[in-house]
Amino acid sequence: MCPGHCGIMESSLLPLLGTVLACVLGVGGYSNGRVEVSCTDMQPRHRSSPQTTPPPFTLSTDRVDYSAGEDVTVNLLAPSSSHFEGFLLQARVLGSESVAGSFLSAPSGTQRLSCGGSPNSALSHSSSSEKSSVQVTWRPAADQDVHFYATIVQNITVYWVAVASPRVRFSSGSNSTGGTSSLEPANTTVPSSAVSSMMTTAPLGITVEGCGASRLCFRQPPDCDPAQEPAACFFMSAMVLSPGSSAVHYQLSGPSPGYIAFGFSDDRNMGNDDIYICVEDASGRVQLQHAFSSGATTPDTVPLGSVWDIRTSLAAGVISCSFSTTNSISTQRSSQRHYLLYAHGPSSNGQVQMHSGTFVSADTVDVSSPGQELRTYRPLIIKAHGETLGL
Question: What is the pTM of this model?
Answer without folding.
Answer: 0.53
